[in-house]
Amino acid sequence: MSEDTRQSTVDELLALDDDESSDEAESAGVFADKELLEVDNIPGSDRIVGRDDHITFLAKNLREMRRSGAAGVDNVLEWGETGTGKTLTARHVCERLESVTADTDDPIASVYLNPDPQSSCTSAWREIATQVNTKADTDINVPFSGLSAEHYRKKKLWPTVEEHFSGGLVVVIDEIDKFPEINEILYTLSRTKSKDGVEVPVTTIGISNDLDFRGDIESRVQSTLQPEHRTFTPYTTDQLVAILGNRRDAFRAGALADETIETTAELAAEEHGDARRAVQLLRKAGDLAEEQGDEQVTPQHVRDADELVEVEIAMNLVKGTPLAGKLLLFAICRLSRNNPDKEWFRTSEIHDVYQTLSRDTETEPKSYNRALDALNKHVTTGLLESRKQAGGDNGMFRTFSLQGDVGHTREGLINSTPELATLYGQ
C-alpha cells in the first residue's frame, strides 16, 4: 500500500459523511457514556453497591478531622481481594470530604498514591507534594529529582498544606504490599507533628490485596500508626448484577441484550467477586460488539471478551518490565505447559529455560542471582508466588509458581514483547 493510499484510508475512517450530523455520530455504536466503564471512574453514591458500612465508617472517621483534628481520627488499613471496593470507598469518601470542606475556613485535601516496586520514600513524598500543590494551584516548583525526601516534605509540601488546607491532609496509599519502603513512609506519616512540626491533621488510608502483609508491618509502625483495620469481602453475584446495572446507562437504550449483565456478573463472581473485572469485562464486550458491527451486546460477546480481558490483564501486569523479566516469566509458562501436573519450579530450572530463550531472542542472559532478583520482583507484583523448600543434602532452595492462567499469561507476554512476537510469529 502506497503512502498516499494509506493516508487516504485513515482520513476516510476519521471523516464524517456530508449528511452525517454530530448528533447521529454521537449515537453510533453501542455506547452512550463509555467513561462510566473506565476502571478509574469514581461513581456517585447511588452507583456504589454493598459497601455502605465501610463508607459510613470512613466518613464518620474522617469527620473527626473537622471536629477534633488529628487527635480524634484513626489511620485506616483496608484489606481484601482485588476489586472488592477498597479503593473505590476510600477515593469516594475523600472526594466528598474535599467537596464538603472546600468553601469552609478549614478545607481538607486528599492525595492518592499507587506506588510500584521501584518507588521510594523520596518519590512518594515528591508525588504527594506535587498533588497538593496542584490542588492548591500554587506556583511552587516540585522538581522530579534532585531533592531529598525531607526537602520535599518540609519545603514543598507542608507549607502548602498549612496555608491552603488548614483542615488537614488525607493520604491514600494503594497496594501498600508492593511498596518496598512502606514501613518508612507509614512511620513518617504517623509522626508528622514530632518529625516535621506539622500542626494540621494528617491521616493515612493504606490499601492492600494481601491480608498476610499485616505481618510485614513493623511493630514500631503499628505502635505509632495504631490503624483501624477494615476487611472487604468479595462481592456476591447479586451485588455484581446491581453494580453493572448501575452502569447500564453507559450503553445506548436497548444496546444490552437480555442476560448480558447476568452473564458478566457470573463470570466475575468466579474470579473472587471482582467488581473491577466485571466492569472491565462489560466494557470489552461492548468494544467487541462495535468492532463486529452489532447493535447489541450479547452474552456471547461477554464470553468472547472474557479471554481477551485475561490477556489484557497479563499485558498490563508486565507493562514496563525489562526484557529479561519477561523472558523469565515466559520460561515459567513454558515449564508449566510442558509439566501440567507440576505447579512449583526451582530457580535453577527457570534459569536454564531462560538462558535458552535469551539465545533464541539474541539477548545476553542475566546471571543466576540477577535472575532471582527479577523473579522476586514478579512476586511483589503478584504475577508469581514464591516459597522456600527443603532440599535434603542441598539445603533450602526457592521455588516459584505462576499465579495467572498459563495460556493468558503466555499470550500477554507475546503480545507485549516484540522479541517474543517475532520468535513465535504473532
Write the layout of secondary structure elements.
Layout (H helix, E strand, L loop, with lengths): L2 H12 L7 H6 L24 H17 L7 E5 L5 H16 L6 E6 L7 H16 L12 H16 L3 E6 L8 H9 L1 H5 L5 E7 L10 H7 L2 E5 L4 H9 L14 H11 L4 H17 L7 H20 L4 H16 L6 E2 H14 L7 H13 L3 E7 L5 E7 L3 H11 L1 H7 L2
Parallel strand pairs: 1-4, 1-5, 2-3, 3-4
Antiparallel strand pairs: 6-8, 7-8
Helix pairs in contact: 3-4, 5-6, 7-9, 10-11, 11-12, 11-13, 12-13, 13-17, 14-15, 14-16, 14-17, 17-18
Tell me about this structure.
The protein is α/β, with parallel strands linked by helices and 426 residues long. Helix content is 52%, strand content 11%. The chain has helices spanning 3-14, 22-27, 52-68, 86-101, 121-136, 149-164, 182-190, 192-196, 219-225, 237-245, 260-270, 275-291, 299-318, 323-338, 347-360, 368-380, 406-416, 418-424; strands at 76-80, 108-113, 168-173, 202-208, 228-232, 345-346, 384-390, 396-402. Strands 2-3-4-1-5 form a 5-stranded parallel beta sheet, sandwiched between helices. It has a 3-stranded antiparallel beta sheet with strand order 6-8-7. Helix 14 (323-338) crosses helix 16. The longest helix has 20 residues, at 299-318. It starts with a helix and ends with a helix. Mean pLDDT is 88; it is low at 20-27.
Radius of gyration (Å): 25 Å
* Number of E strands: 8
Spatial ordering of strands, largest sheet: 2-3-4-1-5
Label the CATH architecture of the largest domain.
3-Layer(aba) Sandwich
Rounded average pLDDT: 88
Counting helices, strands and paired strands, the structural category is alpha/beta
Helix content: 40-55%
Name of the level-1 CATH class of the largest domain: Alpha Beta
